[in-house]
Design goal:
mainly alpha; 2 domains; about 260 residues; elongated; Helix Hairpins
């Protein structure tokens, strides 16, 4: 193989590879559909010309047929009038008209066959064009789907699940550490001296409220003498050992029960 042939082969191979890369199947198919549709008007014009020739030959044959009939009548009239010279002239014209009629009839048959074939070819082309168009549209849809799948594949290739998983784990650990620290601070806050003092203050407030409640009931005469002495003793002894809330409630319930019996 010569050097020039090798260079030519390399150039063609490189050009073909470059064209394959830049060639868009979707655009090529759309252009093919447009080209097929653009041929339809040209094909219709060709069929119309063939049919026009058929129409013209049909009219010529009709005129020749009338001419033959007319010449035959003239020949008969000339013979009847004894004008053989005129009849002879008409006979010559009749013979020529008959020859023209035969030739036109033969041409008309060919034109009719050509018109039928042209119409059939046009119909076949239109049918094939519709079929190819439907196939092209399916291919275009497949090309679009393939393009989307390629883009998705490229996206998935660029997505490294390992890196993101490590990021999630790192963030989870940080959040868990913050939650644990917050819970520890909350636990320390609830178990501190201030918290215990707050509980004592709330207990003392409850005791004062119960004492006021008993004082109101005593003032209103709702408590008996025994219960009032017991309540007074308990209130007087409150500085050393104040009664609990449960004990005060039990005393109130007992007093109300005694009053109900009396």
């Amino acid at each position: 193989m010569g050097l020039w042939q090798r260079i030519t082969r390399i150039f063609r191979a490189g050009t073909g590879a470059a064209l394959d890369k830049i060639e868009n199947p979707e655009l090529v198919l759309q252009q093919t559909i447009r080209d097929m549709r653009d041929r339809v008007p040209e094909l219709n014009n060709s069929v119309a010309q063939v049919m026009a020739t058929e129409r013209l030959l049909q009219k010529n044959r009709e005129n020749l047929e009338k001419q033959v009939v007319d010449l035959d009548s003239k020949i008969k009239a000339s013979v009847k009038m004894g004008r053989d010279d005129i009849a002879t002239a008409y006979i010559g014209q009749l013979q020529q008209a008959q020859v023209d009629l035969e030739r036109t009839s033969a041409q008309l048959e060919l034109a009719q066959s050509a018109s039928a074939n042209a119409l059939k070819a046009r119909d076949n082309y239109v049918l094939n064009m519709k079929k190819k168009t439907a196939e092209a549209m399916q291919l275009i849809s497949a090309a679009k789907q393939a393009k989307l799948q390629e883009q998705l594949a490229q996206t998935m290739e660029g997505f490294n699940i390992g890196d993101d998983a490590s990021t999630f784990n790192e963030m989870r650990e940080k959040i868990e550490r913050r939650v644990a620290a917050a819970e520890a601070k909350l636990q320390l806050g609830t178990s501190s001296v201030d918290s215990q003092m707050a509980d004592i203050e709330r207990e003392a407030m409850d005791i004062q409220l119960q004492d006021k409640l008993l004082a109101y009931k005593q003032e209103m005469g709702l408590l008996g003498a025994g219960s009032s002495n017991a309540a007074g003793k308990q209130i007087g002894a409150g500085s050393s050992a104040p009664p609990s809330e449960q004990e005060i409630l039990e005393q109130v319930i007992e007093t109300e029960a005694n009053e109900a019996k009396s």
